[in-house]
Amino acid sequence: MKKSLFITLTLVTLLFIAFSFSSTLINAEDDGDKLKEDLERIKEAQASLSNDMELTEEEIKEIEEAHARLEQEIRRVDMQIAEAINNIEEKNIEIAAIELEIEELKKDIEILVERLKLRDELLKNRMRSIQENGGTIDYLNVILGAKSFGDFLDRVSAVTTIVEQDKLIIKRHQEEMEQLQELKSSLSTKLNDLEQQLIELQALNEQLNQQRFEKEEFMAQLQLKHDELHQMLEEQEEDAETLAAEKAATEKALANWEEKKRKEAEEAKKRKELEDRSGLPAGTFIRPSQGRVTSEYGPRWGGTHTGIDLARIGFMESAVASAGGVVFKAEYYGGYGNVVFITHNIQGFTFTTTYAHLDRIDVSVGQEVEQGQHLGIVGNTGYSTGPHLHFELIEGDWSSRYEKRVNPRKYIIF
Ligand SMILES: [Zn+2]
Question: How far is the CA of 334 from the centre of ligand 1 (A)?
Fold first, then answer.
């Protein structure tokens, strides 16, 4: 990317230089073709870059969507983790309650055990006394020791009750012992279950944390890719700007080249017309001074303007010989003011040119002058209302001026 940027910048610089010196560098037909080729190449590069940028933007969009989906997933995992933590806390409370219950049951068991011990003692004493008295005979003695029938009945009833009570006590004693044992065992099982569940919940929590860690890791990678793509897009945008600048410079150079071609064609056409008109090669006569035309040859103010007027450009502007020839008059001459007359012999024909209203004459009669040679200073002498050069052209000598004076535009492009 940096390399292409460098090449593009170099190209832009070259085009800028080409543009600045287009008149010297862009001459041949090939240069226009080259510029057109360049423009096509730039347009292709722009299309390709635009395509690349679309792809990058699509990729960014996809990553942003993946990012959004991932965030949702992470929220879901976070909720699961929160739920797991709640469950663990609830289990902890449950376990604490059960532990308390077990403690209380242990106390109850202790009390019961104490009570059963005492009862056990009582039963043992009773059994001992029965044995000492020869088993059930003691009960018989008790019954037989009755003083009356009523007393006898009471004693039978009492003995029976005692025996029944003893049996009941023993039975309850055993039952309570078994019940306590069962309770202890079931509580222990429940505690084990809860501990198992707690372990499982902790494992789940660890697993969820791991998931979250992995997703955050992935998310960081996505972010990195996202940043990279944005960076790429920025660089592509810079490239696009450079290409646009390059395109503008090339288009300008091409327009310049086309304008130059158009002007050249126009000038060639004018030259051709001039040559057709005059029958002489273009450049046989040249402009005698450089100012703009202020008055044309032809009808003017009810009369005829016998030459063409050219405004003076700045002070001390030179009037120059329109073609090579010989000066035959150089003096102040009536309405012409200071004037120079030159006779030319061109391809066997005689021509005469005049340069009027000069402020100063710098040539003399009989002097031979070359085309473009300085004759004097453009000025305001004679019948003149402002500094200008009055120029006349005659297709013959001075004496034939009334018939053979022509519009100088026949020979000169002004
Ligand atoms: Zn004039």
Answer: 13
